[in-house]
Specification:
Layout: H1 3-24, E1 35-38, E2 45-47, E3 63-65, H2 85-93, E4 99-103, H3 106-113, H4 123-126, E5 132-135, H5 147-154, E6 159-162, E7 166-171, H6 174-195, H7 206-222, H8 225-240
Parallel strand pairs: 5-6
Antiparallel strand pairs: 1-2, 1-4, 2-3, 4-7, 6-7
Helix pairs in contact: 1-8, 2-5, 3-6, 6-8
Length: about 250
């Protein structure tokens, strides 16, 4: 087995596991949304076959698409070019990004509806300080002319809140993207729960939020915490739901 084939196989395994984890945690959206990963040294990406549930995705049935979401390699499955507009825009302009995940869980969608968006007053939200961009709602993300505006809204951030819609998180690899999605999801959950309790929130200062963000960044960069988190949750998922995961 060549190095290229081996790397492709690892990416396929990890991306299929990412889809399964999104379903396991209840963040999936029927057959919609995407998680994409760049194939090293190419302008092509692995993504889900359109029409399959996340639990039906396997390493072998992931499809390879170009930046427009069109099939780049033969497959018995179809791609969903319309739904890839967001991913294609980010991958085309942010070469530090190799994985993009788009979700709109209830909590994420609720935060995306609020003028203030994410606050940074809880443990998870503080880690997102300075890492979030906001994009105004233009309807279903189908049209090529919106791509440049989405990229401008993201800037150099790693979380893009799609107002009145959902979220896209992006990082350098699959495990880091999963960890960032989990942090954003938890931040939204805590923010929604806190909003149900009467009385003002206890604010976190900008200084403390920035320190929290930097501490989290150092942890990611100086350890394999994202990889450990990802692998631990794959093991947990498989233990709780024994099946053929091939």
């Amino acid at each position: 087995m060549t190095q290229a084939v081996s790397e492709d196989a690892v990416l396929r395994r990890d991306l299929a596991n990412f889809y399964h984890l999104v379903d396991f945690f209840g963040w999936s959206e029927l057959i919609f949304n995407h998680i994409s990963v760049r194939l090293p040294g190419t302008d092509c990406y692995l993504v889900n076959p359109f029409g399959l549930n996340y639990t039906e995705i396997t390493p072998d049935n992931l499809v390879v698409v170009n930046v427009s979401g069109e099939l780049a390699r033969p497959s018995e499955y179809s791609a969903n070019p319309a739904g890839f507009a967001l991913h294609g825009a980010i991958h085309s302009h942010r070469h530090d990004i190799n994985c993009v995940a788009h979700t709109h869980s209830l909590e994420i969608s609720a935060v995306a509806m609020k003028d203030a968006g994410f606050d940074h007053n809880n443990f998870y939200g503080a880690q997102l300080a300075g890492r979030v961009g906001y994009h105004e709602f233009e309807g279903i993300t189908l049209f090529a002319d919106e791509r440049d505006r989405m990229v401008a809204s993201l800037g150099d951030a790693h979380v893009l809140v799609l107002r009145n819609h959902g979220i896209a998180v992006c990082e350098s690899d699959i495990a880091s993207t999963f960890m960032l999605l989990w942090i954003a999801q938890r931040a939204a959950e805590v923010q929604c729960k806190a909003g149900q309790i009467p009385g003002p929130d206890r604010p976190v200062s900008d200084l403390v939020a920035e320190r929290c963000k930097q501490s989290a960044q150092r942890l990611r960069e100086n350890s394999n915490v994202a990889r450990m988190l990802f692998d631990s949750q794959v093991r947990r998922m498989r233990a709780m739901h024994p099946r053929d995961w091939s």
